[in-house]
Structure formats: C-alpha cells, structure tokens
Amino acid sequence: MRPLLPLLLTALTVLPAAPAASVDPNYYPHRPGTRWTYANGETQVVGASLAYRGVTVTPVSHQFAGTTYSQDLLEYRADGSVWLRGVNSGGRLNWYAAPLLVYPAGPLKPGQSWTAQGAGLRMTVTVTGTAPLKLPAGNFNALILRSDTTTGGSTSVQLRYFVPALGVVRYQTADGSVIDLHR
Predict the structure, then answer these.
(1) pLDDT per residue over 53-87, tens digit each?
(2) Which residue has the higher pLDDT, 17 or 145?
(3) Which of 30, 98, 99, 180 registers the highest number of CB atoms within 10 A of its CB?
(4) How far apart, in whole angstroms, are the C-alpha atoms of residue 114 and residue 125?
(5) Does the residue 112 lie in any domain?
(6) How many separate domains does the chain show?
(7) In a domain, 115, yes or no
(8) Quick one: which of 48, 87, 90 has its CA closest to 67?
C-alpha cells in the first residue's frame, strides 16, 4: 500500500480542479438604464450603483409620468442574492440595519422558499411553479413567486411572475388586480 501513496498524491495534483460554480450576473437584471413599464403606468428604472453607509447599492426608482415616488436601494451580492437595504420615499430614507432578502442566489426552482423579516414585517416567498404568459411585452415562460407578507398582524398575498434575465413581467396584487409588463 505504501508505494501507491506517492502515485495517488501525484494523480491528485495533476487532475483538473472541478470548475467553481459561477453566478450569472444577469439572472436578476440590474444594469443602469434598464427600465420596465407596466399597465398601471408605473415605470421602474435602474440607476447607477453607489456606496451608502459602506454598502454598494443599486437604486431602482418607481415612477409615474416621469416623477419618482420611491426608490428601492438593492444590494446585489457576490453570491448572486439580492437584498433590500433601504427605501427612499417622500424625501426620507428608511435604511434597514438588517436587510431584507428579496431573492436568493439563482437559479430559482419550483418548490424553493425563503423568508425575510425585519422593519415590522415578515415575508415568505415560495416559487409555486411556472406559467406561460402572452403579454403586450411578449410571450414568456415565467416562474410564479407567491409572497405572503405579514405586518401589523394581518397577512396579504401577492404573486409575481419572474423571467430570469428580464425581471418581473406580471404582478397580481392582494386584491386580485393584474398588472402586466408593457415594455
């Protein structure tokens, strides 16, 4: 057995290393200038990344008729996950000391679930399956994300239809309203 040890060690040093798992930087789109316009008139616009409180965040503005009403500050981490660090609204920044997980590292899979908690709310998101959609913006095979959000003792349910590398193509709000991506 002893003569085989040097041979085994030599073989292990010349074998190619297994490739490291790579993160698709475009799975959750966040290139500055990216914009989504929805049926309710809202346009979401990705801004240039900036450092705030030592954290690199990417602002996503929520606009109606060209006026920004709020801005999410998202942190895109090296592992591929996306975290909500704060929200600018009404001229006031609400910075979350404990960020909220918006999306875990992709790719998302049916049956997958995650929870975010803080700032007085608890949100559990489950990938419930996929759905083919024909929308003004095109035809898509979207993942269905069910969000159960509890705040102040009451829970609401919202569905998001997510297409990797494109973003959310449909929202179904707690009251059942459907808001589709137009462009």
Answers:
(1) 999 999 999 999 999 999 999 999 999 999 999 99
(2) 145
(3) 99
(4) 5
(5) yes
(6) 1
(7) yes
(8) 90
Q: Is residue 15 part of a domain?
A: no
Which pLDDT tens digit goes with each residue over 97-127? 899 999 999 999 999 999 999 878 899 999 9
pLDDT of 183: 84
pTM of the model: 0.84
In a domain, 33, yes or no: yes
The first and second tokens of residue 145, run together, are: 């994300």
Give one DSSP letter per residue of 61-102, joined into a string.
EEEETTEEEEEEEEEE-TTS-EEEEEEEETTEEEEEEEEEEE
157-165 own/partner pairs: CB under 8 Å, 24+ apart: 161/131, 161/133, 162/108, 164/24, 164/27, 164/106, 164/107, 164/108, 165/24, 165/26, 165/27, 165/29
From CA 143, how far away is CA 109, in angstroms rounded? 8
